[in-house]
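Note to self: the last two entries modelled the partners one at a time, which told us nothing about the interface. This time every component goes in together.
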Amino acid sequence: MSKPYKGFEPKWHLEKPPKNSYRSIFKWGDPEFNKVPKETLYKMMKEIFNLTDEDFKDYSEPLGLEEVKFDRPINLPKGFLEKLKEIVGDEMSTTDYDRLSVAYGKTMYDVLRLRQHIVENIPDVVVYPENKEQIEAIVKLCTEFKVPLYVYGGGSSVTRGVECMKGGVSLDMRKNFNKVVDFNEIDQTITVEAGMSGPKLEETLNNAVKLFGAKRAYTCGHFPQSFEYSSVGGWTVTRGAGQNSTYYGKIEDIVIAQEYATPRGIVKTEPFPAKATGPDINQIMMGSEGTFGVLTHVTLKVFRHMPENHYKFSYMFKDWNTAMEAAREIMQCECGRPSVFRLSDPEETDCMMRLYGVDESPIAGMLSSLGYKPHQRCLFLGFTDGEKGFCKNIARNVRKICRKYKALSLTGAVTSAWEKGRFNDPYLRDSMQDFGIMTDTLECSVTWSQMEHVHQLVREYCHSRPNTICMTHMSHCYPQGANLYFIFIARMTTLEEFVDYWTGILDHIQKSGAAISHHHGIGKFFAPWLEGQIGTNQMEIFKVLKNHFDPDNLMNPGGTLGLDLEEKDKKFIRPKW
Amino acid sequence: MSKPYKGFEPKWHLEKPPKNSYRSIFKWGDPEFNKVPKETLYKMMKEIFNLTDEDFKDYSEPLGLEEVKFDRPINLPKGFLEKLKEIVGDEMSTTDYDRLSVAYGKTMYDVLRLRQHIVENIPDVVVYPENKEQIEAIVKLCTEFKVPLYVYGGGSSVTRGVECMKGGVSLDMRKNFNKVVDFNEIDQTITVEAGMSGPKLEETLNNAVKLFGAKRAYTCGHFPQSFEYSSVGGWTVTRGAGQNSTYYGKIEDIVIAQEYATPRGIVKTEPFPAKATGPDINQIMMGSEGTFGVLTHVTLKVFRHMPENHYKFSYMFKDWNTAMEAAREIMQCECGRPSVFRLSDPEETDCMMRLYGVDESPIAGMLSSLGYKPHQRCLFLGFTDGEKGFCKNIARNVRKICRKYKALSLTGAVTSAWEKGRFNDPYLRDSMQDFGIMTDTLECSVTWSQMEHVHQLVREYCHSRPNTICMTHMSHCYPQGANLYFIFIARMTTLEEFVDYWTGILDHIQKSGAAISHHHGIGKFFAPWLEGQIGTNQMEIFKVLKNHFDPDNLMNPGGTLGLDLEEKDKKFIRPKW
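The predicted structure of the combined assembly is written out below.
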């Protein structure tokens, strides 16, 4: 796995979580795979958090190895389960484990609760639908019996999006609802069931020649960090973004048609690339996060798969302001857009250099002597996607602009190193948290003219807490702005401590004039801030739509998108922009 | 102007329309400018329509030179005009001419009515608002007095979008509501009042250095054929597209924020390039065509102005199917997208060659001898926009793909010829119509896999009418499909004849599986088809929004978007796609 430690190595918990354990629910990703911090990172954490090796000799947090068990009777109207059985047969479950396994997502708030055996807001029954018709029947049944309905896709929500606040049914889409419905090579589209996972979709498209007799291989172009444990349906209803979105666009640019089962009936959009036939219904349904109905089928644009055209680049800038200027110029120069585009601020750059073991190599000193100093220098990396000449031209322009802003080329090697970790960095979280070190992220959307202000204000707050790391990067870039990502790492062990800090960060994101989410969505966790973000008149539009589709508030109820929040539970920080 | 005729030349009406005349309302564009068909085109028309020079010795249609005059009393609630005056002072009018001048758009249906002095559906009063606050007050006033409210932007609607079916107020935005509100060079955005005209916006951006002290010149990237007489507000509420949309996108891709005055209050969206904060309110408001409220401010993305990077190209293909294949390959190869991208079918190609006078030159014969035969060959032309290397790479890929499909390069000269006419071809309409030759267009959105079917079915219908020209081209292209444009030229003189034929074409567009509008919008003319297009459940979403914003149906009422149509007035052709 990673390089062996030279000195003391913490007693990492590397065993596969026991079957039916709490840990098997909250642990990220592949049960057999673990990732631990490199020794340099471990040393840094000890320094920053005032810890010694002694603190890493035993776990400070519950490991959650116990079998899931709780006493929460099933509370459904009489006759409901029988009717449900008529629809799905045995493809349903009421075991403690199955119920809990679809109740939580992957924010630290979820993980902490599971470690501490805090069982809240679970469904009464979990259903594994096999096709669209079953889902339509279930929506009808729930509407008839007034039973709340939730959906669990990949399970990587960090917004408490899937949590079953009112009990009822949760549709676990992973097991049976993940098939290809149609592949259209002429139009370059694929239609899939909403439970289709990221990796299965990508594998399908990469193998289109073999599977569909296609002329070439395709890619979905959508690779969120949660890729391996995310679903097409989740991407779509939350307005997700992949790490390659600077070229491919966010999911709302990629989805071309959708079908939903709502209490009001089926909503189906047409697969035209553009129209002028009234408001855009695709864009009304995306972002509804399950509150209007259940997404069943999704038609996505697909792209030619040409990984041979990944021109990788990485550069070191002398400081954040210069780097931001350069990033903006690349976005605005109209040379086409790189696919991955990631600019780390000084604190993240320092951490990454530790993470990749560069900080103790001669490179670190060399960089300093050239004027790229620690705590100031900023790492920028990325690669291209598209046709060969298109990609070459972007790489050429990136080089030209980076040089203009006195950045030093570090070649594509740093990008390759980043690529290795891009989907498995989340595994680090569990290893570190066993020792009380918590990490989580918040992200937001920012215009270029507000970028420096948002970066400064939010980080100032983050650092008002002693002994806390706050790394920031910009990714998902546009000519008009970018997404800013705040990753904090801190020693904290209680739910309250986590929620207080997280809340403070979000307050400051909103105060500083950013949009509270670029691609994680709102769910129940961010909901109190939403009306402040978009304004009351705009919130009314969501409520009107909600009331139309779901007058009995049965679809993902309990705070999602703030649709059924009481006034007292809302925040009203109205950002100036 | 154009080349003198060698033989007989029709007695074109070239005088500036008399002041306050019907002709001054329906005549396209600049009152001082006219355009007449080249002699070759004139000859062709005689042939096709079985006419002789004799038929062109005098006008067969009313020229509309008379002064506008009618007897339509003003019908407004008591006290309303006084209140209106409190808001806008003298910036309002109740003269016959001013009322009629904002009642019609530019479809042949409008022109025919005006030629025949058919005065229908005019407002009671025309108002020239000066700022957003006045519009907000007017919306409130109309809501209070239950007076219908219409908006007139550039006046180039071909959907009866501006027609005041229920009388009331029409806001004429051209005169006073056309100022720049904010220019933000860092974010590359401009905020303007909705009445801003296309040319004024473009001129402002081209002169950003002088006007705003900007670092460089910018362009709006949006050039519909109606450019010179269109408004930013009209583009936005109808989901318009410019001729350069293949690179710049449709208006819904360019608009980043909007503000509306609705009976329910102000709706304002945020200027973030992307968000995950619920459904996309920008995309809910765009396409509402004035039925939710009045658009006041619009923030648009702007682009670097680099006309020196227009790489022009034109090619001749041997036949339509091959040309379509090539067009699709260009769109799907991910080399970046040309800006103007226009592929004419054989009939349009033949007409264009006449229009540009090529058909009698040696080139025509040469083309034939090389296998590019009349009635089969297809002209493809375009140019690039963007950074130099980006543009060069596109031109290179276009060349490569065109060669692969055996197309013959005609250099950029044909494109230059097309550019000269691109905004003034509409002037031809009036000259020809004075002699009873009518021309109009219908356009639709089509997936690649349906392209051949739609092209064939619709044209079959068009040609079921004898002596009729039907030219077709593809423009506004995407990896998943394109827009198809049907231009018909026919000798017809009555409203009924026009409407019957027009209706038949639209029926066939819808039957064939296309979307009934890619960028003209729906208005009142296309409204009966809309519910068939999008489906009843989807139509319900529009109605719910309408009822929320405008429960008394005062905003552009009388059929717009089919929101207040009776069932009997709807068509229900449900296309298969």
